[in-house]
From TrEMBL:
Organism: Kyrpidia spormannii
Domain of life: Bacteria
Entry protein name: Glutamyl-tRNA amidotransferase
Length: 473
């Protein structure tokens, strides 16, 4: 069964449709694995054991009647605990919401259920998605499965850990400054943030409404694309939802990268790299040229100004949402989140509006800089994960900027994917980020799928689970 739990969604779906395994059997196996590993990993806040098995039986009954909803029919999926689930606690990783049970699903959860996915659990995270570590004093610190003393990245740390350890076939996270892509890089899985507005934010506890993105984490690009296709599309009830039809999320095969123009922006994105990561990226860039890609050095003016704007917008919007809650219940917030919100409290309307003006200029400058390339390539993480508990609450606001070069892509709203490509420092995964122009998800995923296949990371992920020793799997 362990091998099946690490198989692709396509492989598992075929077995389900051929009735070689039942949906309840598959869901039960995933739940057993979650129970066995969660005491160590803390990847989940809630497991929907009875509900998931009941839903699994209903989906099995449909299969027995020849009803197939699509490729996700019967596939166990988890979701980050900022996404509402009807009848199941949605805590946002916070003491403040630990007893909240919504009466309706987030729109992306509803679409997944409609597609036949079984939502079996709610993933642990950094409180209110406001951090890059997934250290959580209420529900337990999420631990990196490659080194249990280290962080898995955040804020979707529980999602990254669950996917990496075979607890479900994918997870849905959120990303405001890199919260899908950093855990993907540090846990050795795929993290995909589509164009802003492609996936509905309705039913998601917000951090920063104009930079929040929903997206999948999975063990392969193809699996991430399957989840994306099930969730994508306009939501008329979400004012942030894009009306552009956009891409289909197909990961079409092609034989090489011949003629593909890949932009490399050295300023900021390649600065401050850990030596081990820098050396492996240098090798990767050489391989891209061997595969036929053209590497083009580009310059994006105004990066430092844009970074300041990103911080101002995120903190101002975060405080605007939390103001009535934190004013009444300051002690219900963790120290690092309270510090972050206090920063937002002192941002003026003039500063916020000027930051949005800077943002618009930066989007234009980035599109101009990318006019001669199809893809922008950056490191996924620039430093290895640090030890749990090693950063103070006052320093934690800078963690995402220290660990990754992802936040600016949220300011831009462009689609981005992180895929793992190598290991460093005793076996810790390291990721690379690919960024495309708005609504060019098809091209982005096709390039990522080719690189993934050529790098042969996935077989190494399945084969190198040393942390499982003694856990019965």
């Amino acid at each position: 069964m362990r091998e099946l739990l690490f198989a692709s969604m396509t492989e598992v779906g075929e077995k389900l449709r051929r009735l070689e395994i039942s949906v309840p059997e598959l869901v039960q196996a995933v739940l057993q694995r979650a129970v066995a590993l969660n005491g160590t990993l803390r990847a989940f806040i809630t497991l929907r054991q009875e509900e998931a098995l009941r839903e699994a039986q209903n989906l099995q009954d449909e299969l027995m009647k020849g009803i197939v909803r699509g490729p996700l029919h019967g596939i166990p999926i988890s979701v980050k605990d900022v996404l509402q689930t009807a009848g199941t606690h949605t805590t946002a990783g916070s003491r403040l919401l630990k007893d909240w049970v919504p009466d309706q699903d987030a729109e992306v959860v509803r679409r997944l259920r409609e597609a036949g996915a079984v939502i079996f659990g709610k993933n642990n995270l950094h409180e209110f998605a406001m951090g890059a570590t997934s250290e959580n004093k209420v529900f337990g610190d999420v631990r990196n499965p490659w080194d249990l003393s280290r962080i898995p990245g955040g804020s979707s740390g529980g999602s990254g850990v669950a996917v990496a350890t075979g607890i479900g076939f994918g997870s849905i996270g959120t990303d405001t400054a890199g919260s899908i892509r950093l855990p993907a890089a540090l846990c050795g899985v795929v993290g995909f943030k589509p164009t802003y507005g492609r996936l509905s934010l309705r039913g998601c506890v917000p951090f920063s409404w104009s930079m929040d993105h929903v997206g999948p984490l999975a063990r392969s690009v193809e699996d991430a694309a399957l989840l994306y296709r099930a969730m994508a599309g306009h939501d008329p009830a979400d004012p942030t939802s894009a009306t552009t039809s956009g891409s289909t999320g197909e990961t079409k095969d092609f034989d090489g990268l011949s003629g593909l123009r890949i932009g490399i922006c050295r300023e900021y994105f390649f600065e401050g790299l850990a030596e081990a990561i820098e050396s492996r990226l240098t090798v990767l860039l050489g391989r891209l040229e061997e595969w036929g890609a053209h590497l083009i050095e580009i310059n994006i003016p105004g990066i430092q100004e844009a970074l300041e704007a990103q911080k101002i917008i995120a903190q101002a919007e975060g405080y605007a949402y939390h103001r009535p809650l934190i004013d009444r219940n300051p002690d219900m917030y963790g120290d690092d989140v309270r510090f972050r919100l206090e920063f937002g409290r002192h941002i003026s309307a003039a500063q916020y509006l000027e930051a949005q003006t800077v943002r618009r200029r930066f989007i234009g400058r980035t599109l101009e800089a990318m006019k001669d390339c199809e893809i922008l390539l950056t490191p996924g993480n620039v430093n290895p994960p640090f030890k749990i508990g090693s950063v103070s609450p006052e320093q934690a606001i800078h963690n995402m900027f220290y660990l990754a070069r992802t936040p600016l892509i949220n300011l831009l709203g462009f689609p981005a994917v992180v895929i793992p490509f190598d290991k460093i420092d005793g076996g810790l995964p390291v990721g690379v980020q690919l960024v495309a122009k708005p609504f060019e998800e098809d091209r982005l995923l096709a390039v990522a799928a080719f690189m993934e296949k050529s790098l042969s990371w996935f077989p190494r992920l399945v084969a190198n689970h040393v942390y499982e020793k003694g856990l019965g799997f």
